[in-house]
Amino acid sequence: MPDAPTAALDLVLELTVLLGEDMRRGLGELGLTETKAHLVFAVQHAGPSTQRVLADMLGVTPRTVTTLVDELGAAGVVTRESHPTDRRATLVTLTEDGAALGAGLVAGQRELAGRLFAGLDEDLPAFTRVLGEVVARLRALTEESA
C-alpha cells in the first residue's frame, strides 16, 4: 500500500487523466481542440488582443496563434480587426457566435463543478486550499527545473 503522499499523487494523476478525457470529448463535440478553447477563453477574458499578446498568454509561438486564428476565423468564432493605434497590428476579437461559444464553455465548466462538488460544502474550502498549495509547489518545482 502506498504511503499517503504517493496515494494522494496517484489520485491527482487519475483526476488529471479523467478531466482531460472529459474535456477533450466535450470540446471535440464542439469541433474544438484544447488550444483553440484556450484561445477563445483568452480573448473572452482579455478582450480584443493582438496575436502576439495571445501567444504570450497561451505560451505558444505567434505562428501557432496565426494558425489557430485562421481556423477559428474560418469557423466564424473570431475575426481580425485593425488595431486602432498600430497600423501593423491586428486585433483578434470574438464574433457573436464566438462569444456564445465562450459563454457555453464557462457554463459547462460551472455545471461540471457543481456536479463534482455537490454535497462537499464543508470540505471544499480545505480541498481548495490544499490543492492550491499543491499547484503552487508544482509550479515552483517546474520553474526550478526549467
From TrEMBL:
Alphabetic keyword roster: DNA-binding, Transcription, Transcription regulation
InterPro entries in alphabetical order: HTH_MarR-typ (IPR000835), WH-like_DNA-bd_sf (IPR036388), WH_DNA-bd_sf (IPR036390)
Molecular functions (GO terms): DNA binding; DNA-binding transcription factor activity
Pfam families in the record: MarR_2
SMART domains associated with the record: HTH_MARR (SM00347)
Family matches, as SUPFAM superfamilies: Winged helix' DNA-binding domain (SSF46785)
Name of the molecule in the record: DNA-binding transcriptional regulator, MarR family
Taxonomic source organism: Nocardioides lianchengensis
Organism taxonomic ancestry: Bacteria, Bacillati, Actinomycetota, Actinomycetes, Propionibacteriales
